[in-house]
Every structure is written in C-alpha cells, then in structure tokens.
Design goal:
Elements (H helix, E strand, L loop, with lengths): L7 H12 L3 H20 L4 E3 L3 E8 L2 E4 L6 E4 L2 E8 L1 H9 L13
Antiparallel strand pairs: 1-2, 2-5, 3-4
Helix pairs in contact: 1-2
C-alpha cells in the first residue's frame, strides 16, 4: 500500500489555495497550528480534533525487556508515549476508501 506523504508544504499550499492567504502567511499559519498541538502534547495534555481523532500522552512504567540477541534482561526506564486514537468518523471514512465503497476500491464507469 504505497501512498504519498502529506508534508507541511502540502498543508501550506492547501491553506494558500482554499483560504486565500499569501504563501508566507499560509506557511506561518500551519506552523502556528502544529506548534500549538506540539506544545499541548509536550505538557501532557490531550489534543482532540473533532471528526479526526485524539492525541493522548500515556505514561509507561518501568519494565523488564530482553535483548533479542543475547536474551539478557534489561530494565526499560519509565517514559511517556503519544498515542493517536482516530475518531469513529475517521475510521468509517478510512474503511469506505477513496471511491466511497466499503472495499476501498473505486467502481463504476
């Protein structure tokens, strides 16, 4: 399943075309939004984007892992991880696929 990657430049271009800001303003707008999301996540706050999903920071406690080569037990330090939980609407859209069909394939003439 190869696909293209959406970049900051792509987002800026969409803002430029759809909203009518200059390219410089559109790029600044995208940066401001992404920085705010990043800052909230760094502080451990959840970020919920309606109809898209939520970014949640979870704490993982210390645990014992194993070195796969040697089998030696190694302690893994406690840490925070970010988890993305898609909304029900996004899950439904993903499963419908780009052609609007449940199998994700475009059908028709």
């Amino acid at each position: 399943m190869a696909g293209r990657t959406l970049t900051r430049a792509d987002l800026s271009e969409v803002v430029y075309r759809q909203i009518g800001l200059s390219r410089t303003e559109a790029a600044a707008f995208v940066e401001i939004v992404l920085k705010e999301i990043t800052d909230c996540i760094e502080r451990g706050e959840a970020v919920k984007l309606s109809s898209f999903g939520s970014f949640v920071v979870r704490k993982k406690g210390q645990r014992i892992g194993r070195n796969p080569k040697t089998g030696t037990e190694v302690p893994i330090s406690p840490r925070r991880v970010m988890v993305f939980k898609p909304s029900a609407i996004l899950k439904q859209r993903i499963n419908m696929g780009p052609g609007g069909n449940a199998d994700g394939e475009a059908h028709g003439p």
